[in-house]
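ingest -> validate -> predict -> emit
validate: passed (alphabet ok, no gaps, 376 aa)
predict: started
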Amino acid sequence: MSPKHVIFKKVSRDKSVAVYMAKRDFVDHCDVVDPVDGVILIDPVQLKGKKVYVMLSCTFRYGRQDMDVMGVAFRRDLFLVTRQVYPELQDKEKLTHTKIQQKLLRKLGDNAFPFFFEFPDNLPCSVALQPGPSDVGKKCAVEFEVKAFCGENQDDKIDKQSSVRLTIRKIQHSPENTKLVPVAETTFEFLMSEKPLHVKLSLPKETFYHGEPVPVNVEITNSSSRNIKDISVSVEQVTNVVLYSNDKYVKSVAKEETNDSVPSGTSLKKDYTLYPLLAHNKDRRGLALDGRLKHEDTNLASSSIVKQEVLKEVQGMLVSYKVIVRMIASGEVSLELPFRLMHPKPEPDDMVFEEFKRAYLKGIVYGDDDESPTEA
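emit:
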């Protein structure tokens, strides 16, 4: 039995236009980005002679909508492109790029029209700061959206009754894993102590995948006259908002506090295991997430990989991770080591199985309030 593809469908309130898309997550493979494609179904009677357009946008939003006062914009369109799909400006065959589009066009009939967009190289990936329990309105985020609407021309004010908005995500998969073994070490010298404290921190690899434990090796050689105590190891997420504010949010997403001690003249070598999971941080305000779609699970934001030729400011928000070991030696001393937290690059067969599993084990329930999936 061949797996069935889940198709996301959303219809405008007046039934004039509907959007059909085979997926809502689009992968940045570092050298190429998955194109955005789908099909628009129209009702010529409801259109009343108007044209139909489809728009792909990337928006950076900083603050709530009610903060847009005194002419100060707290949002910026990082990318915006609009295409006319009806009346078609090209033959359907020239705009049909995928097999799913072909199947949908055959199934939906003559009033269905394909659309196709390619992402430019310099766009960020989807990321959103997790709101607190009492927060309302739009969150701080980099968001992507496909919008279909009708009008006399594309610059007309969009009528909500005759438009469809579908949130999508641009996510990044890990590049090929390098054989680099991250290591950081340093020496602390203290007053009234002839010999130093030496600390070494290491990880088995540079890139870890979401849901994977992070084993941390700590080596402490205490030749100083101080006694070391209260050793703790943590994973911290660092989010830099590089548009508007240059704010930095540092959040601990996994931590192990211990009673381990290293008296003067002794040493310690120990492995700790940390679990940086969103499941352990559900109510933490300000955590960066990999975007969020309604009714779908998400995870901590992936590490940002910025191409050399791209301006960091265009990225909206940059996310990184580091392991930190802290200890008390009369005062606090610490050592940190950066690493990457990302999605693994799936095999093609795994992706088919995920679609099959979601369709048959979860009852094919997806999307926004008035969305319903169908099968192609």
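The chain has a mean pLDDT of 79.
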